[in-house]
Amino acid sequence: xxxxxxxxxxxxxxxxxxxxxxxxxxxxxxxxxxxxxxxxxxxxxxxxxxxxxxxxxxxxxxxxxxxxxxxxxxxxxxxxxxxxxxxxxxxxxxxxxxxxxxxxxxxxxxxxxxxxxxxxxxxxxxxxxxxxxxxxxxxxxxxxxxxxxxxxxxxxxxxxxxxxxxxxxxxxxxxxxxxxxxxxxxxxxxxxxxxxxxxxxxxxxxxxxxxxxxxxxxxxxxxxxxxxxxxxxxxxxxxxxxxxxxxxxxxxx
Length: 253
Description:
This protein has helices at residues 14-18, 25-30, 70-78, 126-130, 134-138, 145-158, 163-178; strands spanning 2-13, 45-49, 58-62, 80-89, 105-107, 110-117, 181-187, 192-196, 202-209, 215-222, 233-234, 239-243, 248-252. With 253 residues, the chain is of the alpha+beta class. The chain has a single domain (2-252), classed as Glutamine Phosphoribosylpyrophosphate, subunit 1, domain 1. It has a seven-stranded antiparallel beta sheet with strand order 3-2-4-1-10-9-11. A six-stranded antiparallel beta sheet has the order 5-6-7-8-12-13, covered by helices on one side. Helix 6 (145-158) packs antiparallel against helix 7.
């Protein structure tokens, strides 16, 4: 299990998205309020963000608790981006605790995260894994249920499928084949695609101050709200969410 979020809007300090909110991702790493399975997310964390002039994101990951890693605190105060994906990890039993197992996973312009677990790993995933070329699995470095799902999504993206089709197909296939929990999150720097299959998700469509101090459209999609505002909208199970800074849509999968 994990907690994850994605942000789109005017450039915001990573600190303001992760550490400043009352129940931001740092708080969710040790005291999540809506997590259905597990009590802590102490087995690693990661962030990916986009910078001007590059279509490919920057990534920072560690296999330690977010709350105890001082480097990311300093980095977060000086890092600003209009597109961010972050995650904290609670490792499924039998999975390694190492940097390569922490989201976000990346390839080209994509950032990806998985919140959930596949039961009876790895036996339950044999049918899924059979559909992925060995080279695609090998380049993940670390093999977990999350990296397997990323390999499945990425194979579809590289074959030309649009992100919504790829994400919904892998979510449905995984849920039907394994009975697992499959909340997926994908960001390309301009659009967020997320699925719900077994765990919580919500979004906040609002505004964030731009460079001139004036509010500009922004959206946060997250496993759980960052605060107690009534503006957060819960996403029902078995749905796909597509969001930009300006609009968010939901559809049944």
